[in-house]
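To: structure desk
From: M.T.
Subject: fold request, one chain
Message: Could you run this one when you get a chance? Sequence is below, nothing fancy, just the single chain.
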Amino acid sequence: MTTTHEQAPAPALQTFVGALESLVASSHEQQPDFWPRLEVAMRDLVAQDDWLPANLAVPHPQYYQQYCLHVDPEARFSVVSFVWGPGQVTPIHDHTVWGVIGMLRGAEVVQDFACDANGVPVPTGQSHTLTAGDVAFVSPTIGDVHKVSNAFDDRVSISIHAYGGNIGKVDRHVFPPEGGLPKSFVSGYSTPVLA
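Reply: Done. Structure tokens follow.
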């Protein structure tokens, strides 16, 4: 197992990575078993909140952190912890690959968007809140543009994400609220805090 931190991965993370390896080797997002299998694996991972190393759960005072937990050697998928300080929020952005989000601690508010003919991002539906144990999906095939924020102004929230590629190296887009051309970005990863 290839991980990007020096600690041995927790058994829960090892089991999840094994499930993803099996899934991407035998299925893809257009097959009917893909999303249900992905959901079960993520629900199992976030059902326990005792496996994430403390140095991969540290917030930054100004912006959310994206800590790499695992990258598949063939870059077929990656697993990250998103650590949200109080009140932190993303811009409106896409992913360009499939993704699954599992809420580990706290809560996130998610608002989905679609761009109109002028490139203006328009909310689609009501925002929804993910709480501990909840699972959600993103993909260009099912909806890929959203804005996410920590639901709390006074505490940290943490979600675990898996993506169909090395998300720290994927060329993605931020959508200006006023419309126009999206801006390309590559997120990279936050550096773990030394224990």
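Reply (cont.): The longest strand covers residues 107-115. Let me know if you need anything else for the meeting.
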